[in-house]
Amino acid sequence: MSVAASRRPAAEEPPADRLLSAAEHLFGERSYRRTTVADICARAGMATGSFYSYYQSKSEIFIAVIRHINHDVRAAQAAALHGVENTQRARERASFRAYFDLMSRRPWIYRIVREAEFLAPGEFREYYERLVRGYARGVRIAQLAGEVDARYDPELLGYVYTGLGHFVGMRWAEWTEGGRVPDDIFEDLMAVLNRGLPPGKTKT
Question: How much is the pTM?
């Protein structure tokens, strides 16, 4: 279920959001190629002709789904950081937990994003680059505060965070359908980050 759908009954959602939620579920369950516009409308409880009032094509709503997922991931992580201790270790913990929990609720996200690599490669790249930019900004702040060794390139570390999150989450959220990253695995990941990205000299 999408984050938007979890906040209100489907019947109260704006039609465009209902279509978006239906498309996300179907693309994740069946794949892009095995999903039709009629399928999306049926899942959304709308007439097929209504689709074109909101999206021009199946490819357009697929791109909208990718962008919506990316927004939800970043919003969940941002929300998790509110009230968290202002240290890099605390931010890592809150951000990864929020990411893993979202993927546990919507494990089909991994299948949709993988398919995007071939159907919408520009969106696939931007999906990850948006995540990396956010992580890299956080790393830069941590480096200025002396919490992460300044010898490391912030963009590189952004990709390290992204890769760790992707594969750990995929293993326990997608491969173990609806599973949650176990606490012991999560703590091991935090220990790896603590040892691999120790405090160091500040970046000038």
Answer: 0.89
